[in-house]
Design a protein that fits this description.
Layout: H1 2-30, E1 38-45, E2 47-49, E3 52-54, E4 59-60, E5 66-76, E6 80-88, E7 91-100, E8 103-113, E9 119-126, E10 132-140
């Protein structure tokens, strides 16, 4: 009787351990917690000159026609893409996808014509899987 209970317990334990290992491995495959690059700078400004942002600010006058979102990525492990997602009042207004090439550093930008829309804006940087990596907020007054 004791032997039969021990065998059942052992069999039960093997099943639980097998399922636990399987679920852990499955979760690890799905997880992407670390991006293939670092974001060294993410700013908004009124332009880009000689590969550097100009007129950076958190607030812009409503007369500003275009705002540029500039990113400097470092330690890029492999060629990939990022998206600049521009939102106004919680609504997506524009999505621009741009390549990032493998290497030590890559600087790029996207711009948006704001059409005189006053209020809070946000630009999210998303990886190729759509995960938000970082965002920057600014205001039009």
């Amino acid at each position: 009787m004791k032997r039969r209970k021990a065998v059942r317990f052992g069999f039960f334990l093997i099943i639980i351990l097998t399922l636990g290992i399987g679920f852990q491995a499955y979760g690890q495959e799905k997880s992407k917690d670390i991006a293939d690059f670092n974001i060294a700078r993410l700013v908004v400004g009124t332009g880009v000159e000689k590969s550097e942002p100009v007129g950076t600010a958190e607030t812009f006058p409503v007369s500003t026609e275009k705002v540029y979102c500039f990113i400097e990525a470092t330690q890029i492990q492999k060629d990939t893409e990022i998206s600049f997602v521009w939102s106004y009042g919680g609504k997506e207004m524009l999505k621009t996808t741009i390549p990032l090439k493998a290497g030590d550093k890559w600087r790029t930008y996207a711009n948006k014509n704001l059409r005189g829309l006053k209020g809070e804006w946000k630009v999210e940087i998303k990886d190729s899987d759509g995960k938000v990596l970082k965002d920057v907020k600014f205001k039009m007054e």
